[in-house]
Design a protein that fits this description.
The protein contains 11 helices and 12 strands. The model is unreliable at about 1-5 (pLDDT under 50). It is α+β, with helices and mostly antiparallel strands. The chain folds into 2 domains: about 5-155 and about 240-255, Jelly Rolls (Sandwich); about 160-230, Winged helix-like DNA-binding domain superfamily/Winged helix DNA-binding domain (Arc Repressor Mutant, subunit A, Orthogonal Bundle). The strands form 3 sheets. Strands 1, 3, 4, 5, 6, 7 and 8 form a 7-stranded antiparallel sheet that branches. A 3-stranded antiparallel sheet has the order 9-11-10. The protein has a two-stranded antiparallel ribbon with strand order 2-12. The chain has helices at about 25, 30-35, 95-100, 120-130, 130-155, 160-175, 185-190, 195-205, 225-230, 235-240, 240-245; strands at about 10, 20, 40-45, 50, 60-75, 80-85, 90, 105-120, 180, 210-215, 215-220, 255.
Length: about 260
Amino acid sequence: MLDPAVSKSPRYFDTVPSAVQNAILATLPEAEFELFRPHLKAVRLKRNEILQEALRYPDAAYFIESGVVSRVVRTVKDGPVEVAVVGKFGFVGVSLVLGTMQTIQRSVVRVPGSALRIEAGALRNVLQRSPTIREHLLRYVQVLMALNAQMALCNARHEIGERVARWLLLAQERIGSDRVPVTHGMIASALGVRRPGVSKALAELDAKGVVEGTRGAIRIRDLEGLRQNSCECERILRDRFRIIRDMPHHHHLFM
């Protein structure tokens, strides 16, 4: 059972100046990023940490630097199912940008990493001061809506093996590594399916030389082979994020 209390005490950490990795922040012009800079705090993301709970009022937004966060919906009978994957191309806290305040979905860390955290009040002030920043963040919200819709279709129509391949590809792109630190059970939880189905799918990919299981992780050996085993949704979702991926990136330094 995931403990919502873990989100109550963010783990800040000191670091040497480094370039911002989050694409939403990195694609802001320098003058606009300066409005963010004084309010950002680097935090570590722990596996299974709940960053935001559904139907709650968020106290902060998280611009993901590394790792993978799942946005999930759930029912008492069926449990959780992932409807979006958030990584360095996105952020957690869209309700603050939309002004609705109350979150719709739970956001839980699947792959540990780090994020730049900004308090809810500070983010609202930044958005009030800069319509350019609001428009920039809303561009991601539009992409996220398309992601939600595509993954709903994928969950309803595609076989477990295709969905497993799609999940690994999305995770690989977001963490920038061929080693994805997840277990069969974690993928099953994200997809809302039973673990044996995921294990069977991974065994078939292993037999093809596409992936290799290691302790606590799955290593992608053949990226193009994995794409061939995925459904069309992976390509569609990759194309949806091109609007962010292809924007000019700036070398913003953050302490």
